[in-house]
Amino acid sequence: MTYFAMFTDAGNSAVASLVTDAKRLGLDWPAVHFALQVLSRRPEYAEATDTAVRERVYDACGFETNFYV
Predict the structure, then answer these.
(1) Hey, which of 10, 20, 55, 60 has its CA 20 to 30 A from 31?
(2) What is the pLDDT of residues 6-44, one digit of tens each?
């Protein structure tokens, strides 16, 4: 499993699924960023919007657009 700097394996798995879906659907960075915000509303995934997580997701998706949305 890819490490996305989440606190738990379940968190890393949830983010990995988000990345897989984002790639499959061709989502852009603002859409993926929003999905991370939604995920972070769940208490067990609150760190989904931490900078370390966002950076790893951005890289895993292969984005080259502006990171700061």
Answers:
(1) 10
(2) 999 999 999 999 999 999 999 999 999 999 999 999 999
Q: List the structure tokens of 23.
A: 């790639």
pTM listed for this prediction: 0.95
Residues near 37 by beta carbon (within 8 Å), at least 6 away in sequence: 48, 49
How far, in Å, are 3, 14, 23, 66, 69 from residue 10 at the CA level?
A: 11, 6, 20, 29, 26
- Using alpha carbons only, give the angle 32, 62, 3 rounded to the nearest 5 degrees: 75
46, 36 Cβ separation under 8 angstroms: no
49, with CB counted inside 10 A (0-12, 13-18, 19+), is: middle
